Amino acid sequence: MGSKTSQIAEKIRERLSERAMAGVPQWLVPVLPAARENASALLIGTLLGKLPGEDTTALVRTILSEQNTDGSWSSVRNEAGDLSLTLEVVEALSSCGDAAARTALGRAVSWLEAHHRRSGLREDTLILLGALTDIPLGTFRRMMIPAARLLMLTRAVRNTKPVKGSVIPYALSILSRDKSAAASRVRELLEIQLPDGSWRGSVRETVFAMAALRHASLPMADTAFERGWRFLRGLQVWNGDCLVQNPCDLSSLMHATCCRTLLSTGGDEDTAAGCTLTLLHQARASGGWSPGGNLQTDLLTTSLVLDALSFAGDVPVETTWARRRAVMFLIRTQNADGGWPLYPDWRSGLRGSLGYRGHVQNRVSRTDVTAAAVQALAYAGVHERGQEAAVVRGASFLVQHEHNGVWQSDVVHSPTYTTARVLEALTAAGAERGGSAVLRAINSLREKQNFDGGWGEQKGFPSTPQHTAWVLRALTGAPGVSSEVLNRGRDYLEANLDRSELLWTSNSPALPLPFDGTVVSVNDLITLWALEALVPVGVPTRMRAAGPSRSRSLFHRSR
Which CATH architecture has domain 251-551? Predict the structure, then answer.
């Protein structure tokens, strides 16, 4: 590896180490689209005078990046404009006075004028932005909210008895009264503020509550505002030069990827210790992991975490017991056909410890999950009864689902990713178990390499850092791949760093998670994947990074 590449890798590794330490125990990633949450934060931050100028600019930049070509904003990508959301965004942009938003505001107002008779306006939007708050009315809002309708809506809200424990009815009741009458309801709202400063742990409900308290003339020095604002600030993350409110907690997935990347690219064990401890702490009673937060335990994340912990070994933190439990969990959740589903079977007696949301999960075996499980079991560094047989059956399942050197994706929705992961898994299980399927996979991936050295989703598709990273990692451990192929791919990665030389971004920087349809920004993940692919790793390096337990793997990977 050249000196320039070494310097780049070291800079990026230092950044990732700092990011990992800052993300212990949580590692939050931006959720897209995020216009409603960003507009709420921008509006309340402006009203309270607590949002720094540079953060205002960053929030505005995020909001503008999600504006549709017709001038509206949508709650879901590529769907028709949302009237209420667009109204809230316009109010937030108008109140902050950011010069960069002027053109976008003009387009949005034109869209609102063309859609002012459309039904579907949310009542909470009308009340929050209505004439009875002290936010100045704009021309477009006078047109959108006829006085008779606003008066009827206001009376209805005033006469509605708030549901106990619910925040928005309280807030709307206060917002729909004049200031003197609203003051009598303040105490009820303050009593249900949570210790973390939020109302019911929700960004939107916290924004409504703080807007209501301000409307009721609660002194701005009151700690309720400061605590509520700290809650909102704690749920803001940077996405490049943009700021995103209300991100997704993917702590286990992010820390597992970071642990593997840091250790496999020459980082010392102490650097990854924070990630390792976080993963141990986040293990579920079943022995598995969820991607983070309150998401369900799934077998894909469990496999990725197990693989990361096998790199960590037992230095400086002992991980053997966690790896044993994960191995036993994977063994007993394997299907009869040799594959693994995304979620465990709720009928297996594990239901109480998996964090289910009360519905039966699909038990169909998944190629993506099976590949990850086979690789994790093959390199787990522990030896449990039935483990080797599980690897053999899993490898057989993968071979049976090959189609001319390609494996179709059924969870991650990227055949290139799936093919690369299957190739890694079959190599880990032993090339003899993959047979000619391994050679066809290698040839298939080599044929898809673009002229610039990178890989895209299909042959002829534009190269991306994430596709290039996935393929490089697989081909590095595969037999018969020339150094020219690998070096061209690494040259592509080095040439496509952003200007700071600290991260990789992508022309498709959002990844739909298979867990609940959430779309998250994956620039941190892309950087982790690309760094590992940029720095070639040999078996001795990996064994030293993993410690003694890694050297006791069931199968020895030969280069």
Answer: Alpha/alpha barrel (1.50)
